[in-house]
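Listing 4. Sequential folding, example run.
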Amino acid sequence: MASLLEMRSFVGVVEAGSFVGGAEAIGLSKQAVSRHIAELERRLGVRLLHRTTRRLSLTEDGQTFFARARELIDEIDRLEAEVSSGSAEPTGLLRINAPLTFGILHLAPLWGRFAKLYPKVSLEVDLSDRLVDLIEEGYDVAVRISGLPNSTLISRKLATTRLLLCASPGYLKKNGHPATPGELKRHPMISYAYLTTGEEWAFTNPDGAPLRVRTNSRLHTNNGDTCRAAALDDQGVVFLPDFLVADDIRQGRLVELMPDFKGPEIGIYAVYPSRQYLPVKTRRLVDYLVSAFRSPIWQTRGP
């Protein structure tokens, strides 16, 4: 580092034609620049500059050194600009963790395009609803669906999803439509084990007041696809994110219940360990995901 600073001081003085001008150009004091050049000459064992009270001129060794030093500094500046601006080509392995169902439905179609955009990046995608430790387990990025991301991690919001209460037409024909959350106690529930409120399902009343209802689970599972399959098989009422059931509702396979009682809205985040010295490959992946979920498919309306 000291050698580079001495080299920058020398090149700055030569290009400016004076110690004062060189010091201003690189943002140091005249005394510091003089000291750097003197140390550089001492270390090299040659004189680089002829100094008089009126002008500076390069020695023969100084001319040779200046030409190469200028090239090296230009190359270093280009390298720093590429890395800091993210313009360097990303390379290497990216280890990614994501929830199982969301990963299959909404992330799996994205990896091929990312691979085409960045052919020097290889992907290792682990799908699990378990909350992994990014640092301990060596993941670069995780996609998490949660109310509040872990404050020790850096996060960027990709989208939101809302929990929807729904059941199949066959179930409702046989058991009737619950009209209020309180009536859910008389219906068999199909519950997701990782729901943060557990057996209590949270709603917002039409007037905006919060409401919680304790449910009785007929089926309790740690997998959203299993919940959905049971609901489609007329087994009970589910409370699942719209990224999983929105298409079933549009196609009439499931019916949304009590739409005036809103389920909680949950954020979908890309999280990573640190913003400082973020690798280019990680930055490009996070930017790519943000762009891909700008208009989430589950929030589009239509038949």
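-- end of first protein; second protein begins --
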Amino acid sequence: MPIQETLQKIIKQLQEGAHPSDLAEHVDDLSEEQKKELFNLLSDEEAALIIQEMDVFDQVSLLRILTKHRASTILREMATDDAADLIGDLPEEEAKELLALIEEEAGEIRGLLKYPEDTAGGIMTTDFISLPDDIPVEEAIMRLREVAPEAEIIYYVYVVDSQTRLRGVVSLRDLIAAEDGTLLREVMFENVISVLAHMDQEEVARVVSRYDLLAVPVVDEQEHLLGIITVDDILDVMEEEATEDIYRMAGTGEVQSVDILDASSFRMARKRMPWLFVSLMGGLISGSVIGVFEATLEAIVFLAVFIPVIMDMGGNVGTQSSTLFVRGLATGEIEESHVWRYFFRETKVGVTMGVTNGIIIAIAASIWRGVPLLGMVVGIAMFATITLAAVIGILVPMIFNRIGVDPAITAGPFVTSIKDVTGLLIYFWIATTFLEYLI
């Protein structure tokens, strides 16, 4: 299909009501020249709708191929929070240059950029509706009609006092149903769920999920209304936090800031290597443990058969324990005050699984070799390894969490390495203890 025809097709789809998110996928397939030509054909509003749906890497690269004037006109049409996020991802000099061009909106964007990007202030929008508490509902409806086109959400009207402190909220339904002459303070709901600007975005997501909110207001320490966070932004936060935890648990947290499709193989390898070194060191230590007990292995070579089974079972249990614990912390299901309670409960679970699997492998080893004592050795080692793996799977991320380090990074390389070394030590220590009875 000719280039012009492709571009015209995208424009036509947009004008016919196609969702900007679907069109953003088509834009990804265009070359830089085609993207530049397309966004020069689109109106500022149309271009803003599409760019808001693109990934951050694509947004930044697109802005760089457009002229500064064109980029600034598009930024003016974007939601304030989206524009702030985009500018925040640009190098400082480029950001300053664009902010100088967008004038009126620059103040609001700078106000948002002062907050860390992973806090309530960093993800809030200033495009909300707030009205004074001393006006009647009919005036409120008139004002609502005037400002509604610029607001991100109109289902909630936030009520403030003369000092812009948050005092209540009125739903659109209650506002329309109220009788003329009634003041907003008389129909507003006073117990408003709000969040502080410095609250972590993950905690904000929990608040919105817990109370089933469409939006949550953001306030400062004096309860001045600063902005709101809508549920669509919360969904983005939940996806981002889940992705971050998955990457870190796999030991690849550094790739989160990289475009995994376009980044070079060398860069991707460099980002993933640090935690592989942790695993490599763990493997070397495990190998040295086997070397220390070389005499035991030479005396009873058959002991080597059960090394992979014991290490794998311990690894599975350690991964299960750490995953459940880290996920429980992330969702708030496990509160800080209940950590030790969960630790002891998980230890009991580890003991139960250790006893069950220990008995099974003891019976299997005894039948296989016809030496009941060998089965007992392997069974005890399996029991101890699984129990300890459950403890390590909780204890390691718990310690990291206590010292302020994201526990998700410990669920992969650290837990696996520690579990392998301790599992081998347990197995060979027990085997060595009973060696004279096994020969």
